[in-house]
């Protein structure tokens, strides 16, 4: 670094036109640049001129001879720079901290820095080394010893500098800890969590701020702005609610408007006709342009389609109801509009007498009905497969099968989940147990199919003579009442080889505090006589079946993973 008269760079400010630095209102040096940023320790600042980007000292002099495309501030005496699209960090003399390059680099915070390569984001330490092997869709800076990371599936959680999660919980969005608390978001809204990942109060909000001297400003889902303390108690309302509960109730009362608008759009095959113009759509479906426009405008209000100068097209939401989308819900929509819709008319009677509404209406149990109607059964399992593709995207990362030789998927439908495990673990043999008519529908890659052994099985008749290292029950238990669920669990226990074997149960947890899962609970009552269960109810059921809960953690915003160990 060049030497000169020592000046107090800590008093420097960036000029209003951002071309130089000021001491008060006086220029700190005579040079002018295209652009400058503020000074950082040990007294250098990034600048840009006709030669490129570099750093200067408090006299406005370059501190090294190299030039870059972009240069950023020094943190921990290391600065991020880029050169022709390649990013890396340099030391004060301009030399690279490490020999390779990244697609992007952040700034060092708490001795670690976020970087991105072609596989994703991770952190590096002050030597440029990786402190952990994992990669993520995004990582944030460390603050108070933790950083937020995001998986490809959109789950957020906190890690420590060694890359280890500091708690088992996953969220839709997340912030770093500030004075012991972090902002977190789930499907119901924002709230504050403690260092254990636990909510510190029950309420959920539209948005929240960090706590400032034990109070936080938050916005309710009704549009009110209030101040809360760390116990979640409202201590002051600073803006009254802007949304009217009257209209909220009114919308719910006519929610079937949307349901039948979507059904009509599918009956007309409207989503698969887009993008197109109004006149072309009119010709293809045989309705007048004014009639077609009515339903398109309704879909526009629902944000399923959009209009431009070129014509009409689907939004990202509308794409999910096209045939071509990889997670298409088109068949799921058809499924929910048939027997499910009819059965919900019997909710009141089901609540009164505890009898499954579907069974009372159709005089047969749901799964027996499917077995008697092959086309409906095929539709049901195709819809389940789409949900499995979307909801179980992370399951092979969260359930480590490297030490197992065999894995059974109980009620595994058409093999979507088991196929993921067999693809991930080339040594693994899979066993799929389901009804014969379901197994007949399995169509998967032949290389995987050779290691997938199929076992026709009715849960309430004879089970196959089989022993495995591990087993899966993905969203099976909620289909049944306690008596039948207990029967299934006890039968699965007989399949496990020894005390080192594990059963992985994927289920939603009914939250009595927030009501999350309660509508699905009603659906299970209506359709199968099953139920969603609370955390305590699951524990009781598992213990009755001869299992102890080794661990439990969220898989996604819908489901959790229970790891069960067989009791001696």
Automatic annotation (TrEMBL):
InterPro entries linked to this entry: COMT-like (IPR016461), COMT_C (IPR001077), SAM-dependent_MTases_sf (IPR029063), WH-like_DNA-bd_sf (IPR036388), WH_DNA-bd_sf (IPR036390)
Cell inner membrane as UniProt keyword: no
Keyword Methyltransferase: yes
Domain O-methyltransferase C-terminal intervals: 344-548
Keywords: Methyltransferase, S-adenosyl-L-methionine, Transferase
Annotated Pfam families: Methyltransf_2 (PF00891)
Record-annotated membrane-spanning stretches: none
Protein name: O-methyltransferase domain
Species annotation: Candidatus Rhabdochlamydia oedothoracis
């Amino acid at each position: 670094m060049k030497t000169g008269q020592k000046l107090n760079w800590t008093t420097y400010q960036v000029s209003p036109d951002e071309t130089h630095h000021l001491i008060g209102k006086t220029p700190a040096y005579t040079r002018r640049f295209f652009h400058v940023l503020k000074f950082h320790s040990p007294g250098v600042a990034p600048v840009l001129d006709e030669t490129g980007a570099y750093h200067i000292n408090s006299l406005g002099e370059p501190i090294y001879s190299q030039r870059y495309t972009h240069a950023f501030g020094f943190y921990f005496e290391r600065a991020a720079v880029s050169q022709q699209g390649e990013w890396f960090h340099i030391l004060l003399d301009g030399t690279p901290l490490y020999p390779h390059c990244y697609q992007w680099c952040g700034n060092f915070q708490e001795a670690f820095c976020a970087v991105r390569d072609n596989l994703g984001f991770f952190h590096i330490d002050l030597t440029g080394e990786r402190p952990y092997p994992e990669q993520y869709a995004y990582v944030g800076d460390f603050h108070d010893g933790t950083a937020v990371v995001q998986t490809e599936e959109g789950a957020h959680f906190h890690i420590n500098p060694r890359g280890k999660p500091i708690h088992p919980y996953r969220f839709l969005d997340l912030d770093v800890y500030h004075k012991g608390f972090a902002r977190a978001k789930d499907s119901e809204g924002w709230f504050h969590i403690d260092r254990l990942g636990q909510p510190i109060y029950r309420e959920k909000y539209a948005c929240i701020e960090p706590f400032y001297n034990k109070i936080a400003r938050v916005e309710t889902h009704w549009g009110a702005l209030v101040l809360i303390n760390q116990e979640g108690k409202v201590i002051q309302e600073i803006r009254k609610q802007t949304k009217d509960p009257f209209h909220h109730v009114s919308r719910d009362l006519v929610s079937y408007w949307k349901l039948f608008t979507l059904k009509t759009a599918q009956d007309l095959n409207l989503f698969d006709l887009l993008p197109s113009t109004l006149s072309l759509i009119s010709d293809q479906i045989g309705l007048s342009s004014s009639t077609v426009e009515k339903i398109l405008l309704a879909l526009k209000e629902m944000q399923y389609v959009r209009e431009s100068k070129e014509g009409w097209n689907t939004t990202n939401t509308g794409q999910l109801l096209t045939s071509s989308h990889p997670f298409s819900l088109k068949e799921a929509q058809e499924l929910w509009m048939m027997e499910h819709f009819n059965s919900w008319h019997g909710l009141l009677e089901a609540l009164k007498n505890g009898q499954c509404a579907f069974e009372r209406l159709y005089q047969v149990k749901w799964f027996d009905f499917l077995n008697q109607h092959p086309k409906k059964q095929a539709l049901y399992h195709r819809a389940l497969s789409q949900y499995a593709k979307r909801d179980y995207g992370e399951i092979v990362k969260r359930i480590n099968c490297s030490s197992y030789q065999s894995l059974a998927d109980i009620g595994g439908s058409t093999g979507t989940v088991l196929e993921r495990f067999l693809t991930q673990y080339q040594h693994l043999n899979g066993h799929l147990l389901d009804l014969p008519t379901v197994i007949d529908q399995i169509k998967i890659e032949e290389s995987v199919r050779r290691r997938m052994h199929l076992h026709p099985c009715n849960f309430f008749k004879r089970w196959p003579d089989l022993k495995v290292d591990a087993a899966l029950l993905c969203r099976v238990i909620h289909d049944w009442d306690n008596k039948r669920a207990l029967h299934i669990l006890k039968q699965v226990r007989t399949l496990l080889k020894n005390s080192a074997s594990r059963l992985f149960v994927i289920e939603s947890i009914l939250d009595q505090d927030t009501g999350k899962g309660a509508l699905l609970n009603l659906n299970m009552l209506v359709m199968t006589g099953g139920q969603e269960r609370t955390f305590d109810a699951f524990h009781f059921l598992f213990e009755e079946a001869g299992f102890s809960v080794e661990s439990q953690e969220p898989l996604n915003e819908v489901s959790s993973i229970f790891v069960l160990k067989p009791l001696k």
